[in-house]
Request: fold
Amino acid sequence: MKTVLITGTSSGYGRETALHFHERGWNVVATMRTPRPGLLPESDRLHVVRLDVTRPETVAAAVEAAGLLDVLVNNAGIPSIGVFEATPMDRVREVFETNTFGVMATTQAVLPQFRERGSGVVVNVTSSVVLGHMPLTAVYKASKAAVEGFTASLALELAPFGVLAKTVEPGACLTTNFGESALDGGSLEEAVPEPYLPWAEKVMAGFMNQDVFTTERDVAETVWRAAHDTTGQLRFPAGPDAVQLAQAK
Reply:
């Protein structure tokens, strides 16, 4: 029976991905920064483990507790919406610490066992912001684009050992709390300086009124497909809007 470790499973893509793998008979190590009961079903094949990707000691402890892994899904991340001029550098560093350096930390923690065993897959969940021109996401896009570049190079390093690395690029998922979290619980008016506000309001209105968008299930199914792919494909757009962006690119 195969085992997957998934980061950021308390909600959204991570939770749906944990359920998807579990439903298909896998052992699932579902990690959360703050584990809470009732978020996932009780099962002897589903283990909730504390892991904060910005804290090296929790990364090491979670990987040790997980034991032998077949797949690592780096899903944990934090969103960010705003204009760069008004984004404090502390916030920039916070976004990169989770979205970029956290991915690197968890990946580095599992690579020795993958390399020694000659198998394993790393799936890094990025975003469709890397596929098109997405306003109000300069910092977020930069953090995800860094993971895309990291994964592309990593895949070459791991190929001689039979280990794979992939990215999954979700589109806009309007059923998650991306917007609220990205604004840190505040309003667009609080996050965006007045000179930018009329433009930013139009951008956000267009984002929230899309006819084509991604669901959590789209992402879970794409992560599953990436984890099982043997064709050499590196990037996997997830959701119809992301697929359209990838095709246009």
